[in-house]
Amino acid sequence: MSTPVVASPPVPLKKRSGPATHNYSKERKVGEGTYAVVYLGHQVTTGREIAIKEIKTGIFKDGLDMSALREVKYLQELRHPNVIELVDVFSTPHNLNLVLELLPCDLEVLIKDKEVVFTMGDIKSWMLMTLRGIHHCHRNFILHRDLKPNNLLIAPDGQLKIADFGLARALGNPNEDLSSNVVTRWYRAPELLFGAKHYTGAIDMWSIGIIFAELMLRVPYLPGKDDVDQLDVTFKALGTPTEQIWPNVSSLPMYNALTVYAQPSRQELRNRFSAATEKALDLMIMLTQLDPSRRCDSTRALLHDFFTELPRPTEPRDLPKKSIKKEEPDAKRRKI
Amino acid sequence: MCPICKTDKYLSPNMTFLINPECYHKICESCVDRIFSLGPAPCPYPKCGKILRKNKFKQQVFDDLRIEREIDIRKKVGNVYNKTEEDFPSLKEYNQYLENIEEIVFKLNNDVDVVETLAELDKYEQEHKLEILEKNMRESEKSADLVKYQEAMERLKQEKRKIQEKMDLEDLNFQREQQQKLLDKMATSSETTEEILKQLEVQKQSRLTSRRKQLQSINENLDRQFNSANPFHKHLPEEVQTPFTPFKGDRDLNKKYTMLPVLDAEEIMDTDNSHGSYYDPYMNKLAKVKEFLGAGWRLNHVYERALDEAFIGLGCIIEQEKTSAKPTLV
Amino acid sequence: MISLLTPEEEATYLDFYSNNIIKTCNFFKMPTQVKLTAASFFKKFYLVNSVMEYHPKNILYTCVFLAAKSENYFISIDSFVRALQGTEAAHILDLEFIVLQSLKFTLLVHHPVRPLYGFFLDFQAVLLHPEPVMYDVSVDTLGNLYNRAKDWLNEHAVTSDVTFLFTPPQIALAAMYDTDKRITDRYLKRKFLKEDKEKLNVIKEGDEEQPDQNTEPQNEESEKQGVVKEESETNSHHNIKLHTQREHYETLVRTIRKCIKIAKEVKPTTREESKEIDKKCFFALNPKKLIDKRIKRLALEEK
């Protein structure tokens, strides 16, 4: 959308239903969610491998599902190497079909695959691609609101792509309320935990900071058992916010000061993240600032020295891949 | 958490756990110090009671203790059965040997005939003591080669650095000479200062490029010498390194507006508008709402977005684009 | 015979219903954003469909319902239908997918409202800072201009075809221009022509602003290159630049004027006119009814 905005659709999609149905083959069912079934298939003309997300219509009381609408709405607009590509949309009599590029792996699978070793260059490369993707969303005023390793998909050529825009929304008018019940719990920013309704892109940056920590630790960084526990776990690790370090925090709707934990010293963080360089630690601290207005945005993150110090970010094609022997084609449900 | 002293990893993040290959129970470092410093003692885990020695405690490498244990067993067996492929006349025999090792490892790892297997291992060690030692010697020689290689690499680096320094020095002298020449010429020549400067500049550029080429060829030569002399070198494909661009062009550095300074919440006065900032009473009111501020909401974000949107697509003339568009486009 | 609607009749008919969108949205106290999106959906729907295929009444409600969802102003189908008379939930839900399909699954619509606010801010920056440029223009004058321009948008941009022909910032500037030509033109000149001498000096420092740059790829290095270019610039370069600046400015003003003209072409449709067309349309939508009617009449005549 950095290019001129025209009122008509930017991408000429196939006209109406009909012929589009025959352009793609559905071959293998790979997953089923509450509102969609995912198939693997091919684009008939080019032979390109694709995934088709078939969204059921007519099963919800209030018509088309909100997350389906959001996904279509925002993916139609975003074109970036680090955002999943919506190849086409077509309709069959009772279904809405999203044709997406095929992304066979995700970051969660890699993090859990203990046979795969991550180097700092690998982590840097994934962080870089995630930040570029989210920078593109934010610069078009779109919040993702559900960043987690499981939604960062990996293409066969190693490119990381942000996917699942079912919770995404554009920043609204200045006085508009936003729902604070967004983002998967472990990656939820403290302002959301306090019920903030006027948050910013900083919530996505927090998620990225937590993912960064997880890439280094190889286990979830702040795994709260429930919403209350999430506050406790978060503040145990990063300190309980006060008016001093986070002005106006006590005005947030669900603010409570539960247990007061001290801010972790740099040495404590250094011990926790023994593999991190000082620059890596700097970036992580900037991304996990409790006060959203002090948290660094995507521009500052991308300009951070961490990305220019050695080692260089690994070339996407050289990044670690899923170890082959673990592959069980149908056992794992793929979420797209 | 350490089950013995109940210390929490969250509260003392620098605590480490140790295990003993006798029973693989996790005990924190301070407990190990406390319990085993005075000599062998039984494992403090209830119902374990294995006698443990402090010097056998080590850090756990793998999350899965079964893997940790298997690695330990492999190490132990590998120290005795330490032959490599070159010690066998044929691949078949070597495979037979490996198969044998696997058999032993499997038995030990899965608690099958442990006593017999250990006895067998012991017997083999006694019978082949000399062979094992000899093999060990040969292997350490090989690793010594690796050390040598690394040293040579370091020497090469130093060599390169020296050449670079020498060339830098020459460059410096050359520059001084040029400076002097310039002054002389300006005093004597009839040409204008600008012309002289231009000439010198051209000379300097051509010298610079030739110098660069020189340096590159020297470096390449050194590399070639080094690589041909050492057996470890594998030919790696030359990597084309493109300069790092954090945004890959996805950033607008030519905003078509200059923003006025935006005031902080405390600085906004309801009546006064002469602060040199934008004036919008409604927004100023929002900018003071504490709930908004606590959530990260900022006035300058609102202004920046509105201004961005004012100039996105302003210069896009749809009529022109339509006439220049290809007629095949439906 | 069934007489079909002429394109003109169809257009008049749709204009009448477009106005109903605003009424419906106001009834539900929906934000402007929803109103504008619904109107845009409605117009786009009938770019590819005809009122003789789908009667506008339910399409209108469906567009409002879908727009509300798309703009995060969710309203449940039950409360939506309860408030409207003479329509059923099933009708709207059945049409929802058809509407989405006709929109080619494009839901994001850029409206001129936020660009207009952006210009309100930039007018302040250009005309009032560091000191006022026009003796009779103050913050209040600009605030007033902004409010009137907003009304202009509501009156002329929502229902007319300008959204298909111009980009949102162009429509926003058209609203400003038509509301107060003198102030807007001063802004445009200062902004894009750099009429003042002092501004020329600013250009030299690398602060160039070209109105058409967004068609070029903007890469990281472009800023640096811009600076380098600036240094080696000679006078003739400057003249060329002033010339292209002039051209851009003129194109922009021409575009704005055209936009105003098209926006104001729409003439209000009367209820009577619309009723007439509605009748014609009824038989086009339900040809069987017409045949039944004819048969009845023939039967009567035979008796």
Automatic annotation (TrEMBL), chain A:
It is an enzyme of class 2 (transferase). Keywords: ATP-binding, Kinase, Nucleotide-binding, Phosphoprotein, Serine/threonine-protein kinase, Transferase. The active site is at D146. InterPro entries: CDK (IPR050108), CDK7 (IPR037770), Kinase-like_dom_sf (IPR011009), Prot_kinase_dom (IPR000719), Protein_kinase_ATP_BS (IPR017441), Ser/Thr_kinase_AS (IPR008271). PROSITE patterns: PROTEIN_KINASE_ATP, PROTEIN_KINASE_DOM, PROTEIN_KINASE_ST. It comes from the Eukaryota. ATP binds at V30, G31, E32, G33, T34, Y35, A36, V37, V38, K53. Residues 24-307 form the Protein kinase domain. Belongs to the protein kinase superfamily. CMGC Ser/Thr protein kinase family. CDC2/CDKX subfamily. This is [RNA-polymerase]-subunit kinase. The lineage of its organism: Eukaryota, Fungi, Dikarya, Ascomycota, Saccharomycotina.
Automatic annotation (TrEMBL), chain B:
It is found in: Nucleus. GO terms for cellular component: transcription factor TFIIK complex. Keywords: Coiled coil, Metal-binding, Nucleus, Zinc, Zinc-finger. NCBIfam families: cdk7. PROSITE patterns: ZF_RING_1, ZF_RING_2. Signal peptide: none annotated. GO terms for biological process: nucleotide-excision repair; regulation of transcription by RNA polymerase II; transcriptional start site selection at RNA polymerase II promoter. This is RNA polymerase II transcription factor B subunit 3. SUPFAM superfamilies: RING/U-box. CDD domains: RING-HC_TFB3-like. GO terms for molecular function: cyclin-dependent protein serine/threonine kinase activator activity; zinc ion binding. It comes from the Eukaryota. InterPro entries: MAT1/Tfb3 (IPR004575), MAT1_centre (IPR015877), Znf_RING (IPR001841), Znf_RING/FYVE/PHD (IPR013083), Znf_RING_CS (IPR017907). Residues 2-47 form the RING-type domain. Residues 91-173 form a coiled coil.
TrEMBL record, chain C:
Keywords: Cyclin. Residues 19-101 form the Cyclin-like domain. One of its GO terms (molecular function) is cyclin-dependent protein serine/threonine kinase regulator activity. GO terms for biological process: cellular response to nitrogen starvation; nucleotide-excision repair; positive regulation of Atg1/ULK1 kinase complex assembly; positive regulation of autophagy; regulation of transcription by RNA polymerase II; transcription initiation at RNA polymerase II promoter. SUPFAM superfamilies: Cyclin-like (SSF47954). The keyword Membrane does not apply. InterPro entries: Cyclin-like_dom (IPR013763), Cyclin-like_sf (IPR036915), Cyclin/Ssn8 (IPR043198), Cyclin_C_2 (IPR031658), Cyclin_N (IPR006671). It holds the Pfam family Cyclin_C_2. SMART domains: CYCLIN (SM00385). GO terms for cellular component: transcription factor TFIIK complex. Residues 202-245 are annotated as: Disordered. Residues 221-236 have a biased composition (Basic and acidic residues). CDD domains: CYCLIN_CCNH_rpt1, CYCLIN_CCNH_rpt2. Belongs to the cyclin family. This is Cyclin-like domain-containing protein. It comes from Spathaspora passalidarum (strain NRRL Y-27907 / 11-Y1).
